[in-house]
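Fold this complex.
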Amino acid sequence: MIYYSLRRLFLLVITLWLLTIFIFLLNYLFPGDPLTNMTGIRAGDEFAYNIARQAYAFDQSIFTQYWHFLEHLLSGNWGQSLVTQRPVFDDILPLLGATLELSILAMLISLVFGVSLGLYAALNLHRPADTIIMGISLSAYSVPVFWLAQLLILLFAVKLGWTPISSQINPLFDIDVVTGSILTDIVLSDVPYRAAAFADALNHLWLPVIVLAVMPLTMLIRITRDAMLDVLQKNYIRAARARGLSEARIMLRHGLPNAMQPVVRQLGLQFSILMSNIIIAEMIFNWPGIGSWLVKSIYERDYPVLQGGLLTLAALILLVNVLVELFHAWHYPQVRKELYAER
Amino acid sequence: MPNASIYFQQREPSPLRQIWLHMNTNPYAVAALYILGILMVIMVLSPLITPYSPDQQFADAISHPPSWHDEGEIRFLFGTDDLGRDLLSRIIAGSVYSLGYPILAVAIAATIGITIGAWAGMSSGVQSSTLNHMLDVILSIPSLLLALVIIAILGPALHNVMIAITLVLIPQFIHSVHNAIYDERYKEYVTASRLNGCSRWYLLTRVIFPNITTVVVMQLTLALSTAILDIAALGFLGLGVQPPAPEWGTMLARSLDQVYLSPWTMVLPGIALFLTILSINVLGDSIRTAIQERVRNV
Amino acid sequence: MRTLAALLATQCLFILGCSPPSEEIAPLEQGLIYCSEGNPESFNPQLGTSGTTIDATSAQIYDRLIDYDSGQQQFVPALATSWEALDKGLRYRFHLRENVAFQSTPWFTPDRQFNAYDVLFSFNRWLQDEHPYHDVNGGQYPFFVSSGLIHLIDRIERVDDHIVDFHLVRPDSSFLANLATDFAVILSAEYGAELMHLAAPQQIDRQPIGTGPFQFVEFRKDFVIRYTRNEDYWREGPYIEQLVYVITPNANKRMLKLITGECDVIPYPLVDELAKLASDTEIEVTSEVNPNIAFWAFNTEHPPFDQPMVRRALAHAINRPAIIQTIYNGNARLASGVLPETSWAFSEQDQTYPYDPERARQLLAEAGYPDGFSMDIWAMPVQRAYNPNAQRMAELIQSDLARIGVNADIVSYEWNAFRRRLARNEHDSVLIGWVADNADPDNFFRPILSCAAARSGSNRANWCDPEFDKLLVDAISETNQAARKAIYQDIENYVLEKVPLVPIANSLRFQAHRSDIKGVELPPYGGLSFRKARKVAPEDMTAGEPKP
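Structure:
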């Protein structure tokens, strides 16, 4: 396991390193001056520009430049926004918090409901319940997230008035932004109206979470169902039946744990899909997260911000994927054997 | 009976044909196939069958509701948008952008991706393992994110969106084809052919390829739905196809300005998008189930 | 779900030991949410001309020496208690108000009150090139350059702590009007010195300090600007504890948020939609006459737009009545020239080109473009009083142009990036407009079409015509109003002949607010003010207007 973990982590480091090369090269691909794209310092500001030129070794070879770029990147110096002139790195943390809050909640909801619905469908194979669940899941999977979000806003926010249209919380609640995750920030803050603020934040939160949960949810239903069907054909289930165990016991003790293996394996992929949707959903719900920040930076041609957003999102996705793989390998030793046997 | 075979011979249908037979038993898959077929026909004929030009503005019919509505008019079957353009014509013409261009992008990406994937799958050693690792990396990053970055470099325009989507899809094809060939190439039947002295080209095209067509077809449907969604998403964000082109995602984004008063401008393009993606997904799904059944039955 | 949230809230009470609900509602009742249409460029109106920046800063954070009361049509005291013109109008003396405190914030505590040094600091910043703050944050002061104020004021002299003299180069009747605009705000010299000492001068426009009714708390780009009440404000108001700007660029979303109560006040509402959707008891729509003009300007430096004939052809090509019908829903007046109907120099005579695609094609052929050409149309990403939807207008024009063989691409950027690029003249043509800062007709020509405006980057046509500038000078030096009117008609005809821009519409300025909000001021010249805004409880609403 240690060997396997090291291998995976090494691969992660290599991947992240490739990512930094890619981002470094982007500075040359984006329109305009590469140094400005990298640091956010315009050539008009000669004094600062010359300092940056020295600091990033722009008078030397491209390899030296990359080396200096990497140094700055690792020390948390990600340049400054071309629009606000604020350091990019300082802005990222609260944005990341807001994005993580949404994605973790959506992932949890989709996991809980996806696995239970998938299980239910598998146990009712080819009965109406199964057909309905699978039909709905396939349809819901095909709804573009930007359309779904708008339809739900129209229904729940405008027609029914159950929830606000956008943003994290009623802005009159003055909550200091610390982590960016609004629920955490409310708990951390010392305002007198914490309970009301918490309720208000939840009221703002549930709709985007549901919108985001839909796609991973439908995928997880299908994966769970297929996995369960596979498991149910296995000999050990038959053996368990032959031993006269109760159906519930067979499902929960023997079926489910084994059916979870392909589900866990897929979690990384589901997270990637979620992140792709979160970019759009944050725009629609005016959520102060990395995704909307990234898209707005494209509108504004704010390349230092774009790089920061890209690096953060990509690194987050890679990290989650590796963590899922590690968990998978740790929890299901048989997989490790498969992986070794392959090479 | 000159044609009669002397020996009893059970002809095993080709994998693709097996899938086809299996799909024919699934009414949803057949329906999806028909819907997709109709959409394709509409797309091909779109310049001929639109009632009006998609850009023609009727100043006397601003935001007219669809014809089934009380205030609707039969000459605008799906109603008009806020500039008085016929929505039916725009949705039909939009199929070229939202279905035709994704098909084109997938076709290009598939050609390039399958070629590289096949080459990588047939070669061995370090280079293929390196390639695999690289692809693992690229594939875990969502295609939309990469497409956004490419658009940031090239600027939002139709041809740039095509470049972005094609580039993003290529690694997926390489990966799936490479893996499929990798899985097949040490199986007994391939080894047998190799011992028979077949050339690598023959091995690839005549021995292995028929057995991975199902994987390729599944990947095609997957890539197509990704391409449609990504092009629409880019259009929705205003970073894709630019107005006045009636791309469905762009239409959806525009419709937000009057969604409350003329909801049909949002609902109808959305339904078009949804139906297209749904039919492709149902097809892909039934192919996948068919493959699974086949594997289970072996 | 609401019940779920409520349930969780009670859970929270339990877990966190939060205070009882009765006290919790306070921030909601004592605050006001204004859903603005975009980000401010900075927090100092001296640096920009954008209405968004003005609305967000000028009347909230700062005060001016004098204000203009549009009801009484006269100048009224603000930070200056009185003023007089001396030396035949070459010197203006201002007596400054005493006991006016600058805002005290976590990042700055004033040691002294407002005095003459603050006036000197605020004006010399843009007046003197060698001023330490002149080049901070860009060093561009477009309003003062294009209005000519920068050349009009010779120097400013401190007589004593509460008297300052403005020495002018020549007498100018528009001087006071310019001082009363939203751009001529008073900054704190003490704060400037402290920032200089801390080597962070750029903070002066990012963490602003003024004497105004609200003080700045925080700005999260694309999300909120937060202000709190200035406890020591020197005159009436403010009545609300918190003022929050929620940045909501999408007009439809703004309207929906007003209906659901997420916004208390919104600018530039979709008037027709709102009328159909909301009941009058819930939402009030106010409209003010606003001296504005929406126009389509050509970058006269970019070929082929350097040829007047091409510009004239395009002016003939667009169907302006259709634009009024589609974009404004008829709520605007088809512009008959640059000046709006409300100006005294306005004449009934139509000084525009009629819609005539045939003629347009013919002119294009004469100019040497029988097969048309490709161009771009820049469309503002935000709503303004003069143009509720520039992008949609651009689409209409795009299809009009296609009819004469001109292929147009629509270009749009985020509002501040858009303005920056416009100032660099990257556009072929742009759909934009102008809102006058004062009642003088000069304000409709000099800031948008003069050579000075071309240099300061606010001339969207990038048009510099010495003959036109000469007409402007003739007009301003003439004192007889009838004679001036005649000159302004000449100017209109000159614009008609050269077509640096195509006037499109004059419209009202709309604003919508929930019925429990009273006292939001929307003066015709300048940005809105929340100084007297307040939230009234529903039972008080029938009791009568609390508006002073």
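The longest strand of chain C covers residues 153-160.
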